[in-house]
């Protein structure tokens, strides 16, 4: 990370005997001194604001991340560049001693990268290793409610499930695997055919691996399935009968459900909103579907490549006029303006600007009501990019 270097103006002036010449040198140097670029106007250190835009935790970190529901957040110390965990007041709960790569794997457990070995392990909220640094990769570990997390074996490239001590509960034996869902089952791939099935918490096949692909199951038992012959996706009900025969290039169901799903048209490649019966509720018109939060979804328009937010019925919540958008569970929505590249926040009810664009980068508001943002630029402040 680069820091601004002090101008050698004084040293040069000392070597100039003539007062007139000194003035000329000063003027010349002033005219050559670079002014902050537009994107640097918000490239100071990171801190946290509330929904009114007021600082709650002053900008003081090299990087800062979302708070969890429990009120913890990863932050990087500006002096040592080591990573630790802060509380909602900005105090260190776990002193910064890790290499970047701290992520929360469970409410009481996080993944950290050891500063010396650069290996990953699991750390408790007391800062002590629960599973010592031992993996070259591990930042994506997330534990389901049954206490198991998908993990890729570095030696074989196969996937299995570990517990919170890092021990294998289901040995690596799948070509791919996903997190366990509320029904206690997880989608996994057969290592020989790579076809998909569902396994239980002991690793046994509950749904045999004979499917081209499987999606999550909603509360009524509907799920997306990829046809092995055509490669297209359709929808089945709880009995296994097709409600929408395979016809989509891809599908993505909003978390709110409601009998609607986002589907990618096979011919145009555009995304629309379809019913579980296969009819288009909203004709395909989006270039891509982005982040989903509740019944809100970030979409990108094909003509402008700009982003907006729609609800599960396709109605605009935020008009498509932003370079980037980050949703959150509640509070204003973070948006990046294409004109300046700076971030502000719009109202989630009508899309009007409520916190003017002024930040170099920003996250959505966490459940505790705080959002991590990079503060205003000032000479001498760090100006590294937001990681990830």
Description:
The chain has 388 residues and is mainly β. The protein has helices at residues 9-14, 19-32, and strands at 46-49, 55-67, 73-77, 83-86, 92-106, 109-114, 120-124, 129-135, 149-152, 159-162, 168-174, 186-189, 196-199, 205-211, 213-217, 223-226, 233-236, 242-252, 260-265, 271-275, 280-286, 288-293, 296-300, 307-311, 316-322, 324-326, 333-336, 343-346, 353-359, 371-374. The protein has a nine-stranded antiparallel β-sheet, with no helix packed on it. Strands 15-16-17-18-19-20-21 form a seven-stranded antiparallel β-sheet, with no helix packed on it. A hairpin with a 2-residue loop joins strand 22 (288-293) and strand 23. It is flat and about 55 Å long. The model is unreliable at 1-40 and 379-388 (pLDDT under 50).
Briefly say what this structure is.
With 388 residues, the protein is mainly beta. It is 5% helix and 45% strand. The chain has helices spanning 9-14, 19-32, and strands spanning 46-49, 55-67, 73-77, 83-86, 92-106, 109-114, 120-124, 129-135, 149-152, 159-162, 168-174, 186-189, 196-199, 205-211, 213-217, 223-226, 233-236, 242-252, 260-265, 271-275, 280-286, 288-293, 296-300, 307-311, 316-322, 324-326, 333-336, 343-346, 353-359, 371-374.
